[in-house]
Amino acid sequence: MTITLITVGKLKENYLKQAIKEYTKRLSRYCTLQIIEVPDEKTPDKPSHKEEEHIKEKEGNVILRKVKDTMYCIALDLNGQMLSSEDFSEKIKELQVSGKSKIAFVIGGSLGLSKQVLTRADTRISFSKMTFPHQLFRVMVLEQVYRGFRIIHGEPYHK
């Protein structure tokens, strides 16, 4: 199975880079992990709604070029379906069993994802109604994917 994390912006903080490195190592037992960073657009202070939509659209166009037709696309979206860790692992398992061996998780920039990306997504998932920094959220997604594989394989980790 190949897991692709498509995310807007560069990771800057060393502690987050270390966490990504650790989860990349842990996940190597279960899947091939690819992380694709797309550039974020400059956002002016107090942008208008129209400016925000334009920025999301520009970022979305770049994201969509990275989402291949063969990928099952999961958009991380505040308005998506909330799942427990067990349900999340079951979703990964169902995709494996059904032959969908390429999964793309898409994390938008600070303004979120464009309508076009949300439309392309096969599923939308929300981790919480809370807002998280999109750079930290990368670690959270990888941790949940790792937890999901541990649950699928009946291995200790999930409590």
Written account of the structure:
The protein has 159 residues and is α/β, with parallel strands linked by helices. It has one domain (2-152): SPOUT methyltransferase, trefoil knot domain (Alpha/beta knot, 3-Layer(aba) Sandwich). The protein is 44% helix and 22% strand. The chain has five helices and five strands, in the order βαβαβαβαβα. The protein has a five-stranded parallel sheet. α1 links the parallel β1 and β2. α1 (14-27) runs parallel beside α5 (134-152). The longest helix has 19 residues, at 134-152. It is globular.
User: Helical segment tally?
Assistant: 5
Classified in CATH, the superfamily is: SPOUT methyltransferase, trefoil knot domain
CATH fold-level name: Alpha/beta knot
CATH architecture: 3-Layer(aba) Sandwich
Number of separate structural domains? 1
Alpha-beta classification: alpha/beta
Number of strands: 5
Task: Present the secondary structure layout.
Elements: E1 2-8, H1 14-27, E2 32-38, H2 49-66, E3 72-82, H3 85-97, E4 102-107, H4 115-120, E5 123-126, H5 134-152
Parallel strand pairs: 1-2, 1-4, 3-4, 3-5
Describe the structure concisely for a colleague.
Helix content is 44%, strand content 22%.
Question: What tags apply to this protein structure?
Answer:
159 residues, alpha/beta, Alpha/beta knot, five-stranded parallel sheet, 5 helices
